[in-house]
Amino acid sequence: xxxxxxxxxxxxxxxxxxxxxxxxxxxxxxxxxxxxxxxxxxxxxxxxxxxxxxxxxxxxxxxxxxxxxxxxxxxxxxxxxxxxxxxxxxxxxxxx
Length: 96
Hints:
By secondary structure, this protein is mainly α. It has a domain at 29-92. The protein is built from two helices and no strands. It has helices at residues 29-54, 62-92. Helix 1 (29-54) runs antiparallel to helix 2 (62-92).
């Protein structure tokens, strides 16, 4: 974690900057988790629908095509989640 006031690197569980004394307010993890869940659901829905529309001219059963598009959407959403988690850790400066 980095102090928003002076930029000093701090331990993740810090509540106060040891350099400038700035009081650090912890983020609301519940609200952040809802944002993440909503974003992943939107990505899953968008990818699945896009694939379903794009594959419309393929001569296979509609139900099978829908299932395959949903599976592909889940895979793409999982990859999106992993990449965004990795980028968030890199930007915030924390290490896994």
